[in-house]
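step 3/5: co-fold with copper (II) ion
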Amino acid sequence: MKKSKVLFGIVAIVAAMSLIAGCGSSEKPAAQAPASQEQATSHQGHSATMPKEDPMPMMKDLDKALQDVVKQVKAGQTMDAQKSAAQLVSTVDKVVPHMMDEGLKDNLRKAATDIKDSVNSGKTDPNALDGKVKVMQDIIKQTTTHLQGMNH
Ligand SMILES: [Cu+2]
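step 4/5: write tokens
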């Protein structure tokens, strides 16, 4: 009998504590409400359909993969260059869901695919690649600016 009373007491305390904790945590979203409302009305906001990840580190990956492709093609490391080019395209696929500009999406995809196709052909002329790389770098810049204009 005594044991069950003690047990009941513990249950009551735990229940009271979780109630208090519940109150505390429900205050936070209320305080943040104005900010999220602002996001909802902005057309440039990070939409609910987007993956919950920051695309900015991906832009760095994109830059890195592009530099790797250039280095490896110049060094004649075709296999490595093909891997880096595949990395370039898969990183683009991760960034694209965060973009809200259809034209820019297409340009980014096309620039990455162009480089991949060129590297995969096996006999990439480094000079011809330079032109494609410059195009890609310019689009990466535009994409970074585009993504910075959103709330992530
Ligand atoms: Cu996003």
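step 5/5: annotate
Confidence is low (pLDDT under 50) at residues 23-43.
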